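Example 3.2
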Amino acid sequence: MNEYEPDLPMLTHIMQINQKTRKKKIYLFLDFDGVINVFYQEGTPEYEKKVKESQARFDFADRNCVKRLDKFCEDYPVEVIISSSWRFGQLKECIKYLKNAGLRNENAIVDTTQTKVFQSREADIEQYLMAHPDFTGFLIFDDMYMPHFQSYLVQTNSFHGWDEEKDKLARNIVRKF
């Protein structure tokens, strides 16, 4: 079985050509679980609070992580693409979930990766970028390791999600575009 390898030279070439046009279109590929949905350790006060809150509704989002997403979308011209497996619940439902979790900047959420067959998350992202070659940059928020996209990846810890440290890293990556 061959290991997946993206065409990074082509993606870089596309970005460089688009950056010369002075337009700015930055895609932010967003995973939910481990990024905005934090896995609290059982028995901790955070876990007990989330279990109590979630009993009435299907809600795993950490409000602080969603606030960081909201602020990031406010500060930078990103278009959020849902790459999470939650995308199979449709874009409208993903937006509704994020709004219920406190997202105010819902217009930043524009699409999902569209793959219909199972493949790696990296392959999903590359396929999206190749199908939408109008980007000047991209970054990925995920708790999954993506060896080929390390320069673009903000890899979160699923027990902390999008915390202040990862927010700083994301801001450093996006400033390059």
